[in-house]
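Supplementary Text 2. Reproducibility record for the structural model of the 540-residue chain.

All settings were left at their defaults, and a single model was retained for analysis rather than an ensemble. We include the record here because the model underlies the residue-level annotations in Supplementary Table 4.
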Amino acid sequence: MAQAKSQELDAGHDTGPHKSLRTGRVIIVGAGLGALYAALKLSPRPVLMISPETLGEGASSAWAQGGVAAAMDARDKPEDHAADTIKAGAGTVDKAVADRVTRAAQEHILTLTRLGTPFDMNEAGDYVLSREAAHSFARVVRVGGDQAGKRIMEALIAEVMRHPSIKVMEGVIACGLRMKDNNVTGLWIETSAAERSRRCLIEGDAYLLAGGGSGGLYAITTNPPRIRGQVIGLAARAGAMIADAEFVQFHPTAIDIGRDPAPLATEALRGEGAILINNRGERFMTAVHPDAELAPRDIVARAIYSETQAGRRPMLDTRAAIGAKILHDFPAVAAACAGAGIDPVTEPIPVAAAAHYHMGGIETNRDGRASLGNLWVCGEASSTGLHGANRLASNGLLEALVYAEICAKDIADQIPQSAIGDATTDIRFEPGGANPDEDAVLILRRAMTNHVGVVRDQNGLKTALRIIASLEDAADPECWSFLNMCATATLITASALKREESRGGHFRSDFPEPVQALAIRSRISLHEALAIRACVVREG
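Retained model, structure tokens:
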């Protein structure tokens, strides 16, 4: 029944009454870094952004602490940045994509600076650059220590507000795509309030998905509450190919104070010399990897997880390396600690591995196009091949910037602007929508953390697939938002079950070593993932 339920909605059919809107605008789903930057790059072409929250709230981009990776130092080179990206990606990075993105990095930093982003500068007027894990050089451009995402977003929002061609529809989420002959012809939307509306249809000239990743599908995450794989799921349910779904990055140092989502202790702290210790006072990373605390994220995350499982609570110790400077150099971390009664100047910070970034997503080609016609994707919802099996620190914001521009250019080149002109973007929503069952959402998130987390095995993955199937069976078929979550959870889990090896962010305790023959990107459709799930359910 769950399989039929997902397939039934692939074409975006809606049997109930609805309102619709036809606009000659490019429709952008999302309001994070990629969405804002793409809107600006499309200007003066009319754009309509779909944002679940007030602009600037609820986007993962605004929560990014580390910064943007770019070879800004004269001694650094884009080729070295690309080499670090490829090495961290554990054998599955698309080299051409890595070269393209790292070559473009400096240009985008300069653009953001011109737009008013207050990057940290030294007295000589040069960018302050930090070194983060798996980088061979200090190349992470920061703002206010750990305020990069927030400050970049503020600059972009201010610029967007100055462009009359860009309109924003706030308090609205995308929940489905209308299809015809494998082309996207419309976007189904509903209000994002607790009491959902009935769906409405928007038709535009082109469609760009920039609505974030899947971290919130996990019970322990650093992602905002609405980032739960819905955008990937709605595209998959319409037939889009998904790539590298099994590769989820777990940030090693989420601050473990019982908050959901968990505050992040940026990797820049370790770049400044902070160390990881356990509750015995033992520094454990030196025995794990030659780069110790600056090892690739997947390695540090598994070490953190191992200490947690062994009952040796892991902690980030900033006292000797950073001391009182943490209070003004890393204000977000200091504030999170203060809120939990922790003084990071005198006490170590308890940490846990948390779902942070999805390397997988909607498969795109070199121009940012999905496998469905008239659909482009950028940011964390996409899978471009840049990150491979493990994202290099601070490459996430960079990828969003580069591919936002690539998508905008391709849309401008490929899609003629319609003659509809600047039609109204007002739409009237009617009450009566289906709300996600919060208990079901919690069960789903716990299943993902417990069985599809830092360490995986066949039994756990099959257990997760059975839980997802039962939740989908019991779900209201009109609650597309929850079905989108279930679709993405199924894709991640089925892909993890298929990959019988360990690589990057995907670690199988029953297949703990990498297999050279599997050093390739994965591709899967929802149809295939549902077939895998159905087989597991039949096994019992």
